Amino acid sequence: MPPCLPPCPHLPEPPARMDASALSAHGPARDAAFYLTALTYAHYLWQHGLSARALLKLDRALGADLRGDEPVLRDHPLPYAAMAWFLRHTPPEVFLGNPRVHFQHLADRMNEPRREQRRWRVWACWALCRAVRPEFAADPKHRVVEPTLELIADKLTAHGLSGEAALWREVLGKTGM
Fold it and tell me: Average model confidence (pLDDT) for the chain?
C-alpha cells in the first residue's frame, strides 16, 4: 500500500475516489474543465503516494488549451507552485523517477498542438526541478541544448498566458534560485 502524503496547498481537494476515467471523460477537449480535472487527479494521485504519476498529471494540466481568462485560473493558477511543491515534498521512499530527464526528453520531443507553448512550460518545469532537486542528473546520452532561465522566461512571455512568465519566476524565486 503506497503511503498517504499530505495535501498540497496549491491544488484543489480531490474526491475520495478518482481514476483515469475522470480525464478520459473529457474526450478530446483540453479546456478549462479538463485543466481542473487534471489538477484534481494529480492531487488525488499525490495523496495516494503516487508522486511520479501525479507529476505526469500536472504535465497534462499544463497542456490544457487555456486563453488565460478562465475563472478556474483565479483559484488555480498554472501549477508551477504545485510542481515545485511535489518535487520538494516527495519522501525518499516514494518513487519519483528522474523528473529532470523526463522534462528534458519531453521538451525536446514536444509536438502539436501549441507546441511552443507546451514546450516552454516543460522547460520551465525542468528549471524548477533543477532548482528544487539539484541531485537529479541530466541524461548524458540525450544531446539537447539546455535553455537559460532568461530564455525560458522570454519564451513563456512570447507563447504563454499573460503573466505566466512572472508566475513561473515567482515560484522559481521561492526555490532559492
Answer: 95
